[in-house]
Amino acid sequence: MNNRPLILITNDDSIHAPGLRKLIEIMRPIGDVAVIASEQIMSGMGHAVTTKSPLMPRLVKEEPGYKEYITNGTPADNVKLGKHALLERKPDLIVSGINHGSNAAINIIYSGTMAAALEGAIDGIPSIGFSLDDFSPKADFSHVDSFVDIITRKVLQEGLPEGVCLNVNIPKISDQPVKGIKTVRQAKARWVEEFEKRADPYGRTYYWMGGVFQNGDPRSDTDEKALSENYVAVVPVQVDFTALSMLDKIKF
Amino acid sequence: MNNRPLILITNDDSIHAPGLRKLIEIMRPIGDVAVIASEQIMSGMGHAVTTKSPLMPRLVKEEPGYKEYITNGTPADNVKLGKHALLERKPDLIVSGINHGSNAAINIIYSGTMAAALEGAIDGIPSIGFSLDDFSPKADFSHVDSFVDIITRKVLQEGLPEGVCLNVNIPKISDQPVKGIKTVRQAKARWVEEFEKRADPYGRTYYWMGGVFQNGDPRSDTDEKALSENYVAVVPVQVDFTALSMLDKIKF
């Protein structure tokens, strides 16, 4: 009998991303691993799911304690496929990432990486989204191992409440060592000046989404603040959107 | 000078949806209207945004106090286009829908309709997502007018805090009149048994996402409960995902 935990790994930067390979490398000593990741880049797909066309996962690698599937789905699709179609049993843990780029503050809402973790939380599976504060496809992940390992083992051991998962953001590598791990809240920040306007060869106007990220949140206990001080930022996040403080203020 | 409020309307069922036309009909007496909606159906797109390809909105209709744009974007894209590219001033209100199908409970997380409203809330624009508890493309919207009107005028008058919008779900038409409007919380419910497995003509396995919606939330103050009792369910929802109750429980 196999007592090793079953870990489902996905991401939104595609099956080819270095961040995914790093996460697989860290998880394999911890448990049996099933990777279910998209062929295409799914950054910015949020919690999109595929209902207009079918999903066709392909098993591309199999070793003892390891399976790797490539799919045409989104990160949320991939978790659903794992939970309900491909895995022989419910995974003990879902980890997503390591994303190339921060998913701190409002970025969580656009993030396929975090959608995968939230999708796990919906079914009460302990889930973690890991992101590195470096958008480069060639980002350096060499400093992340111990932090990812510590957080993963803690969640495996202690679990998480149903409907809650972790949004973990790791500072970009620098000449200063990361100072540690802080549990913090989502900063109130947003993107401004979001479009670049161009004309095509036929004179038609089109727009590229872009923008500048602005953090105007002065609080000391946010993910943005922790990252800026070279800490790993851990935000417990939930699938319940209710603004509880407003419940008794909106009267009909 | 024009003192009428500027209302941005979008949805996720495409510019051709009867639910969108109903919303436009209700909004035009209330303010100046700009419709920015997708050519394609965007149901289940969650908070996806388009960064891999450009957006090309087309102005397809213009009358005094009314503009209609068709786009190749997602609902979140359409709100961003409105806020930052197409509209001459910041809208006073964003309304999204009326969705063909409930966005109560966990459906909010997959919903393009609600992504549009949440995108408005990020920038502090009072925003409302309206949905009818009837998935049919031919859904009957004839009983919704007064409820949509009341909720809209209340939000225009009183505003909403930055980062908060409303998720409004309206019961399907029946032989009983809707009883009224209740402010409630998001029910804890989920989809189960989510895939139908098939083989293509070449023997390859593929999957259609499906499933059964299960509400196991016994609380009396949820959106599902209100809908089941024939009330319009209004849930104030927020863009802050932080699970506050867990902040002091996850220690490193």
Give the tags.
alpha/beta; 252 residues; homodimer; Stationary-phase Survival Protein Sure Homolog, Chain: A; two-stranded antiparallel sheet
Walk me through what this model shows.
The structure is a homodimer of 252-residue chains. With 252 residues, chain A is α/β, with parallel strands linked by helices. Chain A has one domain (6-187, 218-240): 3-Layer(aba) Sandwich (Stationary-phase Survival Protein Sure Homolog, Chain: A), CATH 3.40.1210.10. Helices cover 21% and strands 30% of the residues of chain A. Chain A has helices spanning 18-27, 75-86, 112-122, 145-158, 223-228; strands at 6-10, 32-38, 58-63, 66-71, 93-100, 127-132, 164-170, 180-183, 189-192, 195-199, 205-209, 212-215, 231-238. In chain A, the strands form 3 sheets. A 9-stranded mixed sheet of chain A has the order 3-4-2-1-5-6-7-13-8, with helices on both faces. The first copy, chain A, has a two-stranded antiparallel ribbon with strand order 9-12. The longest helix of chain A has 14 residues, at 145-158. At the A-B interface, helix 2, helix 3, helix 4, strand 7 and strand 8 of A face helix 2, helix 3, helix 4, strand 7 and strand 8 of B.
